[in-house]
Amino acid sequence: MQTLDFGPLKSICPECKKKSMDDFYPFCSMKCRSIDLSRWLSDGYIIMGREEEESEENIKDIS
């Protein structure tokens, strides 16, 4: 029986599209890692949440 060896998976840096490095995974360098962190901290990325209707029950819970 023959087995297939595809080798290690190669990951691409989400910032600059270069090959990622183990020390900075999933990024290729500290620079790209820092750029991404800066975006998170300055609201450059937004994760949409679910909107809840403002009902009387929700307003009473807050008070």
UniProtKB/TrEMBL annotation:
Chain's role:
Inhibits all the catalytic activities of DNA gyrase by preventing its interaction with DNA. Acts by binding directly to the C-terminal domain of GyrB, which probably disrupts DNA binding by the gyrase.
* Keyword annotations of the record: Metal-binding, Zinc
Biological process according to GO: regulation of DNA-templated transcription
Q: Name one GO molecular function term.
A: zinc ion binding
Q: Does the keyword Metal-binding apply?
A: yes
Q: What is this protein called?
A: DNA gyrase inhibitor YacG
Q: Give cofactor(s), names only.
A: Zn(2+)
The signal peptide annotation in the UniProt record is: none
Q: Where does Zn(2+) bind?
A: C13, C16, C28, C32
Which Pfam families does this UniProt record tie to the protein?
YacG
Entry note: cofactor = Binds 1 zinc ion.
Known InterPro entries for this protein?
DNA_gyrase_inhibitor_YacG, Znf_NHR/GATA
Q: What's this protein's family per the entry?
A: Belongs to the DNA gyrase inhibitor YacG family.
Oligomeric and partner information: Interacts with GyrB.
Q: Which organism is it from?
A: Candidatus Liberibacter africanus PTSAPSY
